[in-house]
């Protein structure tokens, strides 16, 4: 074998491992997806020719291997315990008092971690290489799922040795999860393929890990956060927080919302804070795990048969409830797709009153045998839209009625077309001027994450469309206070407030503007990514599919939907009319026109490494105030790279790209000048 080929393969393996780590663990990539794919293809090609180079820790192993016949059993070297639950502050107080008594000291410090709602796994590393992964099973015996775990992009196949040398043996425990948005996408695809839906992200993660064919697992958007260890030879941990830091150093994702150094009062506050944060997190959590931080004290406290005395799961209120389906109606969406919706006997599900739940489509209703009058289990999982997980056939009394999809659009009475999408059918109103579709588009257009027009809620939009006052997006900005005041239930004052709100909304960020258009597959995130990559709407409209696909985070479906949308002549007219109403689209990065004398004015700047004088976020704020656009990755378009201490790959990349590099002292001098 050629020496050069070996070197090329090893270099590619090392670089791909680093890029994958940056992308999946740090969320801070320095190359595009396309570049990554090119390198991976080249490595695959080499490894195919020289299979000896295809080691178990090669990034090519992420795609899955040959299917298994069955899972082997794995006996855990140290049992994987579960946790006692707490449901209120008193339970936590009791837990604390027990510890104080057993420990014989007053001051006990805790660490609080989000209780991730996923699937527990254990990863075993020998001399730094992942050799076995197992599910928790009954805590004593689990199943070997090594091939499947290798496909999880954020699971290191090899420990990073930047700070510490890899120990001879290390077992790392963590929770495999699927993010809420990935879960919604996964279910949407399953819906289109006519496959049964996962009830929640946890079930989806469990189902994905339990695949005998790891190639299927590889296509599932699994992720992991680690929270502990099993056996660890040659490593001494002092505290839970110290252990997590070491694990992070080995390249594992550790949850960013962990809090340390907490007293009892701190723990109770952390729980409240986490509860507030819960909704906005990208993944599901079902509580907070409280752990004694000091490992010496943990040992002293010891374990019961099934759970440790040094930890407690403080659960959030459940997000499932049982209620009755009163009626099933049909909603017409933005694109004309009909969605059956269950109207429910209102019920409190984890703090939110729920009175409707989506039923997805006709097939789904048939599969779950859902009938009007049924008692049903409702959950709020993943998305905020409640769903029906199952019904209780035993609780029927014979008066329940099956549901049939209407033959006509319930709104415009046009004929419904049954379109085949993969293996499932979708019912669609194909009348482009259907009022229901228009209402949905407008509703989306003015919603919180789009134009955010306060006072233009569901009912008013309905009224305005019904009255013919809104026929297009542009019409929103032509509404007059006098006309509005004539509407039913609209006082003069609120009409005035509304026109003011509409006027104020005319200044909009590019990201929000893109989102507001309601382009298929292009959600909030796509809006942000596009606005970071392009400086204006015109540039986005002119972008090719390849340009769009080149953006990290934009997939082929979104790229082609965005391109198709802007290539459409009607949409172009719509946008022209919209711009003629005086909308001002600003790019997200705040520009400060009053500082054109600053050397950073309208420059693209990347910050890297550690600054001594301030946090990176402060530096970013100063730069933005001086009119700079601060981006996270270095490209040929970058004007300056500000390199603090321990700058890494971005510095290398900037040097290669010929980007002007400045150190902290120079940066401080120039920013003061501004
Ligand atoms: S510690 C002995 N930390 O909760 C300590 N568990 O009921 C055992 N979980 O099986 C686990 N997030 O699947 C721990 N930050 C966290 C966790 C966590 C989720 C799950 C884990 C475990 C279950 C315990």
Textual characterization of the structure:
- The chain is an alpha+beta fold and 674 residues long.
- It folds into 5 domains: 3-63, Helix hairpin bin (Helix Hairpins); 85-315, DNA ligase/mRNA capping enzyme (D-amino Acid Aminotransferase, Chain A, domain 1); 320-408, Nucleic acid-binding proteins (OB fold (Dihydrolipoamide Acetyltransferase, E2P)), CATH 2.40.50; 435-586, Orthogonal Bundle (DNA polymerase, domain 1), CATH 1.10.150.20; 604-673, BRCT domain (Rossmann fold, 3-Layer(aba) Sandwich), CATH 3.40.50.10190.
- It contains 25 helices and 24 strands.
- It has a 5-stranded mixed β-sheet.
- A hairpin with a 2-residue loop joins strand 17 and strand 18.
- Helix 1 (3-26) packs antiparallel against helix 2 and helix 17 (510-516) packs across helix 18.
- The radius of gyration is 28 Å and the shape is globular.
- Bound molecules: 2-(butylsulfanyl)adenosine.
């Amino acid at each position: 074998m050629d020496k050069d080929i070996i070197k090329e393969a090893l270099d590619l393996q090392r670089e791909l491992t680093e890029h994958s780590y940056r992308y999946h663990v740090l969320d801070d990539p320095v190359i595009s997806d396309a570049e990554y794919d090119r390198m991976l293809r080249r490595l695959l090609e080499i490894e195919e020719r020289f299979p000896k180079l295809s080691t178990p820790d090669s990034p090519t192993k992420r795609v899955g291997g040959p299917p298994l016949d069955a899972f082997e059993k794995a006996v855990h070297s140290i049992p994987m315990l579960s946790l006692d639950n707490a449901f209120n502050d008193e339970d936590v107080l009791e837990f604390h008092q027990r510890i104080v008594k057993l420990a014989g000291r007053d001051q006990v410090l805790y660490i609080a971690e989000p209780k991730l709602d996923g699937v527990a796994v254990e990863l075993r590393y020998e001399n730094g290489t992942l050799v076995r992964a197992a599910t928790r099973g009954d805590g004593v015996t689990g199943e070997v799922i090594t091939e499947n775990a290798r496909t999880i992009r954020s699971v290191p196949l090899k420990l990073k040795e930047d700070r510490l040398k890899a120990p001879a043996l290390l077992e790392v425990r963590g929770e495999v999860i699927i993010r809420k948005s990935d879960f919604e996408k996964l279910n949407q695809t399953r819906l289109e393929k006519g496959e049964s839906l996962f009830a929640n992200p946890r079930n989806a993660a469990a189902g994905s890990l339990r695949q005998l064919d790891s190639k299927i697992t590889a296509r599932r958007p699994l992720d992991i956060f680690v929270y502990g260890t099993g056996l660890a030879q040659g490593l001494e941990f002092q505290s839970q927080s110290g252990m997590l830091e070491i694990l992070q150093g080995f390249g594992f994702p550790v949850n960013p919302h962990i809090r340390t150094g907490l007293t009892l009062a701190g723990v109770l506050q952390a729980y409240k804070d986490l509860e507030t944060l819960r909704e906005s997190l990208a993944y599901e959590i079902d509580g907070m795990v409280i752990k004694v931080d000091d490992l010496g004290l943990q040992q002293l406290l010891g374990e019961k048969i099934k759970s440790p005395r040094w930890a407690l799961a403080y659960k959030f209120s459940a997000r499932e409830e049982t209620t009755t389906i009163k009626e099933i109606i049909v909603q017409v969406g933005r694109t004309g797709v009909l969605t059956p919706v269950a109207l429910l006997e209102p019920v409190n599900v984890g703090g939110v009153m729920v009175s409707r739940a989506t039923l997805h489509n006709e097939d789904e209703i048939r599969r779950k045998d859902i009938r009007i009058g049924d008692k049903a289990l409702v959950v709020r999982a993943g998305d905020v839209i409640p769903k029906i997980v199952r019904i209780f056939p035993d609780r029927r009394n014979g008066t329940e009625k099956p549901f049939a999809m209407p033959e006509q659009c319930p709104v415009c009475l046009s004929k419904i077309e049954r379109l085949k999408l993969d293996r499932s059918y979708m019912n669609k109103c194909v009348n482009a001027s259907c009022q229901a579709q228009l209402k949905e588009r407008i509703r989306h257009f003015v919603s919180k994450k789009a134009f955010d027009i306060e006072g233009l809620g569901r009912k008013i939009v309905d009224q305005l469309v019904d009255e013919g006052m809104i026929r297009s997006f542009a019409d929103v900005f032509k509404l007059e206070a006098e006309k509005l005041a004539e509407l039913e239930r609209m006082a003069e004052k609120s009409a005035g407030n509304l026109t003011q709100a509409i006027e104020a909304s005319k200044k909009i960020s590019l990201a929000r503007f893109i989102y507001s258009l309601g382009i298929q597959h292009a959600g909030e995130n796509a809006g942000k990514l596009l606005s970071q990559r392009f400086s204006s709407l015109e540039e986005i409209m002119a972008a090719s599919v390849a340009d769009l696909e080149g953006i990290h985070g934009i997939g082929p479906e979104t790229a082609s939907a965005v391109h198709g949308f802007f290539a459409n002549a009607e949409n172009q007219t719509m946008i022209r009319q919209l711009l003629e109403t005086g909308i001002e689209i600003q790019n997200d990065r705040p520009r400060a026109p009053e500082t054109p004398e600053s050397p950073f004015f309208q420059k693209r700047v990347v910050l890297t490494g550690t600054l001594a004088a301030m946090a990176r976020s402060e530096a970013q704020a100063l730069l933005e105030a001086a009119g700079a656009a601060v981006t996270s990755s270095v490209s040929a378009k970058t004007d300056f790279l500000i390199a603090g201490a321990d700058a890494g790959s971005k510095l290398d990349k900037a040097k290669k790209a010929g980007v002007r590099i400045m150190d902290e002292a120079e940066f401080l001098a120039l920013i003061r000048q501004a």
